[in-house]
Amino acid sequence: MSAQNSIRRTTAPQITARKGGDPIICLTAYDAPTAALVDEYCDLILVGDSLGMVVHGLPSTVGVTLDMMIMHGQAVARGLQSAMMVIDMPFGSYEESPEQAFRNAARLMAETGAGAVKLEGGQHMAETIRFLVTRGIPVMAHIGLTPQSFNTLGGYKVQGRGDAAQALFDDATSVDQAGAFAVVLEGMVEPLAVKITKEVAIPTIGIGASAECDGQILVLEDMLGL
Q: Which of 109, 121, 143, 202 has a 20 to 30 A CA-CA distance from 170?
């Protein structure tokens, strides 16, 4: 029996089944020792494109490449035994078409051993999410404050105030119906995050949203005050 056969990581259906149950715990990791340290305490480990800023000193996530994500994903995978690894699709690797998204998502999955990919966007990405899921690639959606779009959002601002609330609610229902197994709600006003959590069938993972989400995600370095 190979060493890999002893590894039994959490799966996307298991995360979806946690809707309304015990809170889902998620942290970021960008290397093997960090992943090994937090593995037993987490349900999900996100290899986030935040690594561009946290590790590489970039001004935003926009400059992160697919090769960078693969390198860090491979490192994190070596440190995990039980937590599910989700890896971000970087800017420019999925927006052009569902076919482009599938090629790059398949490469991320095959070369890192990730259990799912995460991509940003709501209604306009629903077709792509459905395309990936029907072809065997679990997708975690990400709406609200989407860092890859900070240039069009005008910076890192809280989302969902006023008339924008309905559009974000529609984003949430769209990615749910498209087949995402969970959705990250980032930088969102709390009443809207609570409403989305109550209305969609998939777990919501909050980051700067609401304590009433089905789970929370933190950048480890932020949590430690680094």
A: 109
Supply the angle between the helices 164-178 and 126-133 in degrees, to the nearest 10: 20
Of the listed ranges 4-8, 75-79, 90-94, the least confidently predicted one is: 4-8
The model carries a pTM of 0.92
- Asked if residue 168 lies in contact with residue 184, where contact means CB atoms within 8 angstroms, the answer is no
Rounded Cα–Cα distance for residues 223 and 22 (Å): 21
pLDDT of residue 1: 42
Structure tokens that stand for 139 in this block: 């997708």
Report helix, strand or coil for 118.
Answer: strand
Smallest Cα–Cα separation from 127: which of 96, 103, 152?
Answer: 96
- What's the rounded Cα separation, in Å, for the pair 129 and 95? 11
pLDDT tier at 38 (50, 70, 90 boundaries)? very high
Active site residues: 186
Q: Which residue has the tokens 């715990």?
A: 25
Stretch 49-77: mean pLDDT, rounded?
96
Specify the long-range contacts of residues 201-207, CB closer than 8 Å, at least 24 apart: 201/19, 201/176, 202/16, 202/19, 202/175, 202/176, 203/15, 203/16, 203/18, 203/19, 203/24, 204/172, 205/24, 205/26, 205/44, 205/140
CB of 50 closer than 8 Å to CB of 219: yes
